[in-house]
Amino acid sequence: FQPPHKSDSVRLPPYVPDTPEVRGDYQLYYDEIGRLDNYVGKVMAELKKQGVADNTLVLFISDNGRPFPGDKTTLYDGGIRTPWIVNWPARIKAGQKTKSLVSSVDIAPTFLKLAGLTPGKTYEGVDFAPILVDPTATARNYAFAEDHWHDYEDHGRAIANQRWKLIRNSYVDLQNTPSADAGRSPTWQSMLKLKADNKLNAAQLRCFTSPRAEFELYDLKNDPFETKNLAGSKEHQATLLKMQSALAVWSKKTNDYLPTKRTPDEFHRVTGAPDHSVRKRPRPSKKDMFGTNGKY
What we know:
The structure is a single chain. By secondary structure, the protein is of the alpha+beta class. It has one domain (about 15-100, about 140-290): Alkaline Phosphatase, subunit A (3-Layer(aba) Sandwich). Helices cover about 30% and strands about 10% of the residues. The strands form two sheets. The protein has a four-stranded antiparallel β-sheet with strand order 3-4-5-6, with helices on one face. The protein has a two-stranded antiparallel ribbon with strand order 1-2. A hairpin with an 8-residue loop joins strand 3 and strand 4. Helix 1 packs antiparallel against helix 6 (about 185-195).
């Protein structure tokens, strides 16, 4: 394994405070990334040993963003933007980079087409294979993301192109609580202490904001950490309306809807402690959890 990282080498985003506890938390995360990288290397070495590496398509991604406040289970890039590394020596030139948009829903239809099969009509993704050959190619104009109940209740949708991202929050009364694992982390505990002492800046208070804005518009080029909401800016209304319209088209196309009732939180939104009166297994049916609304 690689040697442990040092806390002073950690790069923190502006929406978490710079404290020893937070740095230590991120340091351990860096160490886990190093451990993962080591095992990925073992898999790649085994493919080479078996003589199949050159003609094996390998795609490396993660399931979601970092497990920290402001990241996992949010629709900010820290929650939905993941690694996307493709290796296929026989077909793809190494070292290429692309700015083209791709989404995880594109994986299945792309792999099926590369295997000479036709994706079924229920597949929502698009074929990104042309990008593998030509990094300047375009597979999609927009990428979409959703946030449902995950430990805590929420209902959000996002649309992004290469420059802009729009987030639509349906439950504006609920604060943007981190996932349960992040809610019990040293980072979150440090933030709770600093909040009590009024020592968090505006970006760091975002996790605690209630009510939230219904719409959030971010310039990903000039504001990659999404700290300045431009939805209320007069000069950005044309962009806002364009993104809202595209999101509405996608919502209709995918038969998206707002549940008729909310699902209770399984954890306390501040302490992260589990609520055993709600956290039941097996879980109730979708009808019991979300209501009907004509969908179930």
